[in-house]
Amino acid sequence: MTLQIIHVGLGGWGGDWARRVVATNKDVETTAWVEIDASALEAARDRLNLPADRCFTSLDEALKTVRAQAVLITASLPGHVPSARTALLADKHVLMEKPFAPTVAEARELVELAEQRGRILMISQNYRFQPAARAAAAAVAAQQIGRLGTINLDFRRYDNIAPIAEHRHYHIWEPLLADMSIHHFDLMRLIIGQEPVQVSCKTWNAPWSNYDEPAEGAMTITFDGGAVVNYRGSWVSTAPQTNWAGEWSIEGEKGELVWTSRGEKPEYAAIRLRGEEELTPIVLPELTALDRSGSLAAFVEAVNTNSVPETTGRDNLKTLALMFAAIESAKTGQPVNVA
Ligand SMILES: NC(=O)c1ccc[n+]([C@@H]2O[C@H](COP(=O)([O-])OP(=O)(O)OC[C@H]3O[C@@H](n4cnc5c(N)ncnc54)[C@H](O)[C@@H]3O)[C@@H](O)[C@H]2O)c1
């Protein structure tokens, strides 16, 4: 059965969702589009060729007018909690973009509301739906490098070219930790198979950074199974760019596992056992749907089978808690326990 959805938030990324992800999934039909900003709605309507009578500036209006079983939220962060709350109170399933919510308390409120209403609340952690991420997670789980010790992870991009007034990204809240590192925090939990315990984080801006808030950071994160992650991230790095998932080196007692995915450089995962010179590539799994299409397919599957998706809101509370702990540590200069 086709899943009817209302799509909320039609900025740059939301428009891309509509065109490249939702429109290409034959199991989903969009019955209304919602964008709070009237001029952005008009621009999206023109760009995406949407029917005017099914475009709204309020989710309440759309819910009164069209049929839908689910709501897809690709609004910016201030729109996440109000839109999800409205959708859940109307007994709709919800799929939404990261970061989940501006506070853990609000995220928890939504998780509990979804559970009370018997509805699925899923966060699209699209970086999980990549072959190398899955291969690395499976190899670690299968003990191919044994018990884990140190993990080194680097993320570098140079997103610092556009003029200051024109680039929305320079002016958002915590552009590194909340907007980008949340993907890496979530991947750490997937790949390592352990939960974060404590983080010590420092963030800053290089002298040439166009960002208002810190665009660079470094941290050490300890995990409950003994793994320790050293993570460095930068939006203004003049060193060679990494793929979006970053460059990973995972040291286990038997050797090293390296992997990367999602970007200009080829995706791979490989193991070099201790004492070996060469890396041995891991055969990557073939995923039927990649990235956001993987998220959407997992959401549809969860709704159709009434099952709990991997990146359900409740699971994502742990990713979000690590993000807030890193932000607090950067602000206080102290190690922070992950709640
Ligand atoms: N997963 C990824 O790889 C990835 C990449 C880029 C962006 N994102 C996420 O996607 C979301 C949107 O990002 P963007 O770059 O399109 O932002 P944007 O600011 O360009 O667009 C967001 C749009 O949401 C609208 N909006 C805000 N509140 C709303 C509400 N209550 N109802 C309806 N519309 C509302 C705004 O008016 C705006 O048009 C963010 O959460 C961002 O973190 C994820």
UniProtKB/TrEMBL annotation:
GO molecular function, one term: nucleotide binding
PANTHER family cross-referenced by the UniProt entry: BILIVERDIN REDUCTASE A
InterPro entries for this protein: Gfo/Idh/MocA-like_OxRdtase_C, Gfo/Idh/MocA-like_OxRdtase_N, Gfo/Idh/MocA_Oxidoreductases, NAD(P)-bd_dom_sf
Recorded superkingdom: Bacteria
Protein name: Oxidoreductase
Organism: Dictyobacter aurantiacus
Domain Gfo/Idh/MocA-like oxidoreductase N-terminal: 7-123
Database matches in Pfam families: GFO_IDH_MocA, GFO_IDH_MocA_C
Family: Belongs to the Gfo/Idh/MocA family.
Stretches assigned to the Gfo/Idh/MocA-like oxidoreductase C-terminal domain: 140-338
SUPFAM superfamilies cross-referenced by the UniProt entry: Glyceraldehyde-3-phosphate dehydrogenase-like, C-terminal domain, NAD(P)-binding Rossmann-fold domains
